[in-house]
């Protein structure tokens, strides 16, 4: 799997960091119709969902299936919901590529422009021939000539652009594929250079507003440049609309937002990235889009953020997830959904359709199961613990385990925060982490031993969630933490503390 890189400090901050209805605000306005009327079996969609829950339990966070411009089916696994934007990771790249296509159509650049032409001050003295030869087209195709992604560019004292341009380039640009998130960052930097606007703001009136994508956020580096290759947060329906725009060759409500020529070029085979016929990672690469088997293409991001376009079937499949095996998720779509599409409407099947609706409105990640209390609960409820130094920035911690409003109370340099504890369900609260700022936190808890409270802690704006084991030993507390998905080790350093004496 090709996973984009994120700076360690920011990733840690984000991953350290309820329930709304799974029904969209306005089914009628969104054009939701029965699957059968669009040539798809409701049972096939339900089979896809159930296979995902069985084979990849708790991996999927949401999906939306569109055909012929209509929403066929969609769902969110509680505590994820319809309204909360989800971190896209490298699916952001497809949006950065789109900005380049729009900028080219506006005459601001061409993809044959040399990269260093935009950055005279940042270009090193006596640039190598390979650096001088690198073009925007090479950034788009991940053919920059680097042997590996120049991640160390983020540590350059003069900024990321200077760091990228200073990295060694052993191969002639255009001849060597290396997945390279920093190349996409350079696309963002170029957009900012030629427009005077950050990438997100440039795309605002040209893409986000026409698609009614409200208040998108895109993380930036210390120089105020959007990451480009990652850092964008959107709702599932926004991903679906973006895919629909590409399926419609750049036209939206009668207006050509992106040129059809760009769509065709960006989503076609531009460079080889392998030769395994059974891998959706080795079917070729376009301009920040992956070619797939079965004549499909996609944008994707680490841990299962997908915008899959099926041109022959006139279908878009949007998915958000937290999976260690992105290929497995695609395989399920190819096995259960792809064969189910028919050109003509199917005979109505009200029973199958109602079963699908029942399934999609009751989706949820499995909460913690077990007793809601233990003998220890009464002993530690209300006690305050002084926490040892830790990467969550916690200074104190306490539990309120009364029957009505069980909660976890945390404090750090930003203030005090109360997180409701769900037993057999999820409940949401807010906590402000030292670097990432305020984040929604959804928790579910159960006592697995008399002295051990197990918790699930999901961050619904991200793919990430923690399995926490909170152990009590007299006046000591220990919190063991395991992430669901991570670029490195899933097991994190334990957080410990000591109960403060009471008067």
Could you characterize the architecture of this molecule?
This protein is α+β, with helices and mostly antiparallel strands. The chain has three domains: 30-84 and 239-248 and 274-366, Beta-lactamase, CATH 3.40.710.10; 87-234, Beta-lactamase; 375-499, Lipocalin, CATH 2.40.128.20. 26% of the residues lie in helices and 24% in strands. The chain has 14 helices and 21 strands. A ten-stranded antiparallel beta sheet has the order 15-14-13-12-21-20-19-18-17-16, with helices on one face. A hairpin with a 2-residue loop joins strand 19 and strand 20 (476-483). Helix 3 packs antiparallel against helix 12 (326-337) and helix 4 packs parallel to helix 8. The longest helix is centred in the middle third of the chain and has 15 residues, at 181-195. The chain is globular, with a radius of gyration of 24 Å.
């Amino acid at each position: 799997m090709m996973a984009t890189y994120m700076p360690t400090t920011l990733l840690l901050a984000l991953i350290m960091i309820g329930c709304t209805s799974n029904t969209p605000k306005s089914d009628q306005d969104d054009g939701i119709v029965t699957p059968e009327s669009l040539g798809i079996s409701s049972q096939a969609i339900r089979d896809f969902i159930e296979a995902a829950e069985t084979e990849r339990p708790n991996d999927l966070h949401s999906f939306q299936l569109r055909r012929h411009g209509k929403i066929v089916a969609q769902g969110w696994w509680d505590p994820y919901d319809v309204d909360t934007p989800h971190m896209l990771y490298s699916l952001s790249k497809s949006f950065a590529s789109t900005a380049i296509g729009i900028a080219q159509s506006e005459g601001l650049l061409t993809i044959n422009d040399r990269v260093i032409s935009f950055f005279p001050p940042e270009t090193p003295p006596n640039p190598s021939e390979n650096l001088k030869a690198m073009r925007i087209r090479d950034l788009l195709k991940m053919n920059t000539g680097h042997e590996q992604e120049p991640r160390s560019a983020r540590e350059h004292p003069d900024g990321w652009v200077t760091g990228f341009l200073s990295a060694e380039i052993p191969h002639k640009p255009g001849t060597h594929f290396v997945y390279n998130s920093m190349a996409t960052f350079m696309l963002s930097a170029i957009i900012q250079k030629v427009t005077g606007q950050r990438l997100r703001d440039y795309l605002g009136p040209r893409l986000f507003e026409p698609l009614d994508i409200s208040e998108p956020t895109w993380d930036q580096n210390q120089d105020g440049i959007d990451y480009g290759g990652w850092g964008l947060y959107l709702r599932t329906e926004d991903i679906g609309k973006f895919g629909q725009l590409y399926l419609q060759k750049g036209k939206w409500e009668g207006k050509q937002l992106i040129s059809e020529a760009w769509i065709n070029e960006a989503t076609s085979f531009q460079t080889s990235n392998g030769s395994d016929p059974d891998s959706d990672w080795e079917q070729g690469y376009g301009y920040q889009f992956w070619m797939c088997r079965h004549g499909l293409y996609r944008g994707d991001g680490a841990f299962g953020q997908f915008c899959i376009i099926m041109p022959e079937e006139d279908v878009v499949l949007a998915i958000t997830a937290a999976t260690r095996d992105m290929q497995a998720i695609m395989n399920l779509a190819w096995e259960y959904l792809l064969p189910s599409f028919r050109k003509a409407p199917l005979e109505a099947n009200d029973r199958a359709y109602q079963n699908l609706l029942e399934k999609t409105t009751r989706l949820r990640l499995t909460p913690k199961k077990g007793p809601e209390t233990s003998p220890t609960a009464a002993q530690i409820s209300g006690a305050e613990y002084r926490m040892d130094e830790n990467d969550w920035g916690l200074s104190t911690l306490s539990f309120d385990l009364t029957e009505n409003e069980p909660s976890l109370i945390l404090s750090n340099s930003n203030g005090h925060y109360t997180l409701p504890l769900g037993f057999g369900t999820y409940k949401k609260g807010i906590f402000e982490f030292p670097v990432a700022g305020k984040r929604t936190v959804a928790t579910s808890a159960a006592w697995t031993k008399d002295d051990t409270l197990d918790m699930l802690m999901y961050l619904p704006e991200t793919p990430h969630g923690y399995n926490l084991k909170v152990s009590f030993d007299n006046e000591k507390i220990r919190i063991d933490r395991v992430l669901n998905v991570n670029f490195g080790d899933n097991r994190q350093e334990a957080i410990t503390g000591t109960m403060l004496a009471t008067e």
